[in-house]
Design brief:
- This protein has 543 residues and is an alpha/beta fold.
- It contains 15 helices and 20 strands.
- Strands 11-10-9-5-2-1-13-12 form an 8-stranded parallel beta sheet.
- Helix 5 packs parallel to helix 6 and helix 11 packs antiparallel against helix 12.
- The radius of gyration is 23 Å and the shape is globular.
- 48% of the residues are buried.
- The structure holds 6-O-alpha-D-glucopyranosyl-D-fructose.
- 6-O-alpha-D-glucopyranosyl-D-fructose binds next to loops.
Length: 543
């Protein structure tokens, strides 16, 4: 857990980072070309979203061969060159371990499907239905339909897919499956990676196949999400990781804070992503989260989990300025979010473009979205005869295309992602001409410049890496906290004071004492915070 203390992790969505061979699709050589940029913003660890052979129905989260690089991303030689070049830049690579399910194109599944006596049947969940095309139970998957699909050639036999129907769930109670997964881990760890981000790490243990309580989303989840039995399965991954001193960072879907804490305390995972911030409700009209709720959720996570994997963004979410900042205040709000992310206790996870303050598409027609979740929501809305505007709003609110627009490095045609006249696999964001690395590097007031200042503050102040956190009493829309040295140490303390709202708010002037290291406003009033104002102070030598 202590291994990443001072560092942050930068998430790369390879299809959208840098296209080196000008086919409109990002690739591994592109990432290698950009190591200079990563170094310039202080990156020491990169998490790559999946790069393995895949039909790309779920953009690589549906894997057909765990030990092969998808040709769209390059070759194994490109991968090894990337690992080596990254190492030379003191950057470690984390890969995405997606083993809750495979693709339906994986040979294990195709063999299981074509031969009822194949040993691979037991790699998945094949079950008898209730006759008349009725599935074994009422569980639903991400598309709101049955989580079971009937086999084309075997009436009344179904397979389970808790995500999409092209992603059959693996049967973790089969030791052969566990062994195969451990082999996959060793295969990549032997190539010099430093660990894994693990997809849906809390969903392996299926503890019963009874009908679930009926809900709109995820009927049946009480039988397979965050079951206590899951811990012993995750330990199988820990065993392998420990042999390499590798990092394991789990996506803890559906897990409570105490369950995530248990994964850490029992040394099963180094840290886990909670969904508490992700699942905060957004206002139906403007799509933003209430500042009070954000504050409450941050405090709960920080006080109940020993070491958090802090994040506001990833490849599944809308951009954080759209989710947490009121319109018209994005410049200040973006910096406030970056400031919080980089000063809370735990490891910050920065998603590509977040350091620039990237935003969602301005014009978003969900019916044109490439993401399968967006399409599933639209279909659901249609089937339920929801009013058109509601279906459209729901779909664009959850559209995962937003954060998947290509990274913008400059303001030339192709935005430094790809070349001129090349059609990217997903369309460019309309704001790329303004929100890009080049423009922001030239502007001391940009989100990127603010981010770089934050990285420097983290590096200069060990208390941000190692220290405790203590929340200070403040108004419900203000977040104020101290980072204090570990007991016995005499490092400087840091105080962070942030207005999470679009209102100008009075504060206790005592919160403004100390040496101001960084702020997102030029004019500082000790007793007042303007909308989304953030200030970071150093308080010398407190013990
Ligand atoms: O994206 C979501 C809903 O819109 C999330 O609920 C998501 O399903 C959940 O976070 C699990 O995500 C992970 O596994 C999925 C994959 O599509 C996501 O990209 C990945 O992050 C299935 O592998």
């Amino acid at each position: 857990m202590g291994r990443l203390k001072g560092d942050f992790v930068y998430q790369i969505y390879p299809a959208s980072f840098k296209d080196s061979n000008r086919d409109g699709f990002g690739d591994l050589n592109g990432i290698r070309e950009k190591l200079g940029y990563l170094t310039s913003i202080g990156v020491r660890h990169v998490w790559l979203s999946p790069i393995f052979l895949s039909p790309m129905v779920d953009m690589g989260y549906d894997i057909a061969d765990y030990k092969a690089i998808d040709p769209r991303f390059g070759t194994m030689a490109d991968f090894l060159a990337l690992v080596q070049a990254a190492k030379a830049n003191r950057i470690g690579i984390l890969l995405d371990l997606v083993v809750n399910h495979t693709s339906d194109q994986h040979p294990w599944f195709t063999k299981a499907l074509s031969d009822p006596s194949s040993p691979y049947r037991d790699f998945y969940f094949f079950r008898k239905g209730k006759g008349n095309h009725r599935p074994p139970n009422n569980w639903t998957s991400m598309d709101f339909k049955s989580a079971w699909t009937e086999l084309p050639n075997e009436p009344d036999v179904f397979y389970l897919h808790t995500f999409s129907k092209t992603q059959p769930d693996l049967n973790w109670s089969n030791p052969k499956v566990v062994e195969a997964i451990q082999g996959i881990m060793r295969f990549w760890l032997d190539k010099g990676i430093e660990g894994f981000r693990i997809d849906l790490v809390t969903c392996y243990a299926k503890t019963g196949f009874q009908d679930g309580r009926k809900t709109t989303v995820g009927t049946g989840q009480e039988h397979y999400v965050a079951q206590p039995e899951n811990h012993s399965l995750v330990k199988k991954l820990t065993e392998v990781a420990d042999g390499y001193d590798a990092l394991l960072i789990g996506e803890c879907f559906g897990a409570s804070r105490s369950d995530i804490a248990r994964y850490e305390i029992d040394h099963e995972l180094d840290m886990g992503f909670s969904f508490d911030l992700t699942h905060l409700p957004t206002h139906w009209r403007n799509g933003t989260v209430k500042s009070r709720w954000l504050k409450r959720a941050i405090i709960a996570l920080q006080t109940q989990i020993p070491w958090n994997a802090n994040y506001f963004e990833n490849h599944d979410l809308r951009r954080s300025p759209n989710r947490f900042v009121a319109r018209g205040f994005r410049q200040a709000g973006t910096k406030a979010l970056l400031g919080i992310l980089m000063t809370l206790k735990g490891t910050p996870f920065v998603y590509q473009g977040e350091e620039l303050g990237a935003v969602d598409y301005v014009r978003h027609d969900p019916s044109k979205a490439l993401d399968l979740v967006t399409q599933a929501i639209l279909e659901f809305a249609k089937e339920k005869h929801l009013p058109k505007f509601l279906g459209k709003t729901l779909a664009s609110r959850h559209s995962r295309d937003n954060a998947r627009a290509p990274m913008a490095f400059d303001y030339q045609p192709g935005f430094g992602f790809s070349g001129i006249n090349i059609k990217p696999w997903i369309r460019y964001n309309e704001r790329s001409g303004i929100i890009n690395v080049q423009k922001e590097s030239e502007n001391p007031e940009s989100a990127l410049s603010f981010f770089k200042a934050l990285v420097k503050i983290r590096n200069d102040n060990p208390v941000l890496a190692q220290g405790r956190i203590h929340f200070l009493p403040s108004k419900s829309r203000v977040l104020a906290y101290l980072r204090l040295p570990e007991t016995g140490k005499k490092d400087d303390a840091i105080r962070v004071v942030v207005n999470l709202s679009r209102f100008s708010l009075g504060i206790n002037p005592k919160l403004s004492k100390g040496e101001l290291l960084l702020a997102n406003r030029h004019e500082i009033k000790p007793g007042r915070l303007t909308p989304y104002e953030i200030r970071i102070y150093r308080i010398p030598g407190q013990a």
